[in-house]
Amino acid sequence: MAAEKAEIDALKKECDGLRTQIEAARKAVNDGNMSSAAGSATDVGRVQLKLRKSLKGHLAKIYSMHWSSDSRSMVSASQDGKLLVWDTHTGNKLVAVPLKSAWVMSVAFAPSGNLVASGGLDNMCTVYNIKAASPKTLRELDAHTGYLSCCRFLSDNEILTASGDTTCCLWDLETGKQKIIFTNHIGDCMSLALSNDENTFVSGACDSLAKLWDLREGTCKQTFSGHTSDINAIQFFPNGNAFVTGSDDCSCKMYDLRSDQEVITYQDASLNAGVTSLTLSNSGRLIFAGYDDFNCHIWDSLKGEKVGVLSGHDNRVSCTGVPADGMGVCTGSWDSFLKLWN
Amino acid sequence: MSNISAPNSSLVLVQKAVKQLRLEASVRRIKVSQAAAELKTFCLQNAHKDPLLTGVPSSDNPFRPPKSCILL
Q1: Contact state of A263 with B39 under an 8 Å Cβ cutoff
Q2: N or C: which end of chain A has fewer CB within 10 A?
Q3: Region (Disordered): which ranges (chain B) (predicted)?
Q4: CA-CA distance, A284 to B49, in Å (whole number)?
């Protein structure tokens, strides 16, 4: 017993030493930050986007939305118990998927456009074929022991989920079974984002940490700290070398993968609302962040300045997304509306 | 739940923690100034391809119904 305790103590000491080593290594490369590097870039000026469409149809709070890879269709999820697939060019509803459980928290479109997935307090991720004559349940992925906070398709055969049980999971859709379970977070996983090459993904959790994972090995490669509260939203910067997070601590941060640390924080003394969602414009220059204050604030990602706001919702902005062609931004809210801006 | 706790679960946990930290410590890091410069370069090089920065002309705006007549 004593020998084991001694071994545990020695290992704990090694942990402390390693943490100190990591901090020192980060400090050693911390020779500047984004706003100083960005000094020479021209200002974007005031970004004033107009409301182009308000999509009415849901009868309760919207929790999630996701663009199709065709940049035209979009799926939204509401706690009215429905997923709606929209044609954003006409504003028409294409498909309505009734959910077994109304407590939905996340929705995703497969890159093929054939499938959508959703889940929430039922702890499951349900995959639907929306190209069938009427939406057909393809799979019910049932193994998480906590709520489903986020899901993203890699293809029609694989999907990645994040859960309140603190794990993320890669599923095989042909068998409906878990392929890899990603464990390391010590708080509810709230959000995930896939890299373009689909070899890695990042996750944000209630332990205020973001983590980079190897999708095939199942290992956590890097851990990023700095936030002081739950991370609710996470997105990759378009070149894949950085990612942006949004948190209940009212700030967003950009972390660079290769310097293994935060490079800039987006915060403002007048903004005292938590960040619920975020998305980036195609060049990565603009960050659209949805807040509990009913607005979507626009940040210049390089200079760290607020450059605009999308106002119009009557309740919390819960989700945002820019389509692949970058032609606009969609905001979804607890006020039951989705709005399209450009 | 059984009252018999696994005798070496704390040991296993701290061994896992050490393994993970060793992995994270071994990352090769580049200077923040270099990382920031590359992010800036990417933004500037792609700015002309970013419709939310350049603006979307009314005639090409997919979310706005066309005002003109359709020629049949």
Answers
A1: yes
A2: N
A3: 50-72
A4: 11
Choose the mutation target among A26, A44, A259 for the interface with B, i.e. most B CBs under 10 Å.
A259
* Domains, chain A, ordered by start: 51-341 (2.130.10.10)
Place of tokens 């679960």: B9
Give the mean pLDDT of chain A: 96
Residues 6+ apart with CB under 8 A from A342: A49, A50, A52, A327, A328, A329, B51, B52, B56, B61, B63
| ipTM for this model | 0.92
Residue reference for tokens 């490669």:
A221
Interchain proximity B35–A242, CB inside 8 Å: yes
- Looking at A30-171, list the stretches that DSSP marks H as alpha helix, in order from N- to C-terminal side: 34-37
Q: pTM for the complete prediction?
A: 0.94
> Residues near B13 by Cβ (< 8 Å), separated by ≥ 6?
none
The shortest CB-CB distance from B25 to any of A22, A219, A322 is to: A22
Hey, what are A221's tokens?
């490669």
Say if residue A111's pLDDT is above 70: yes
CB A25 within 8 A of CB B29: yes
Smallest Cβ–Cβ distance between A283 and the set B50, B56, B61 belongs to: B50
Residue whose C-alpha is closest to residue A323's, from A112, A72, A83, A151: A72
Task: Tell me the per-residue pLDDT of A38-52, one tens digit each, with 9 for 90 and over.
Answer: 888 899 999 999 999
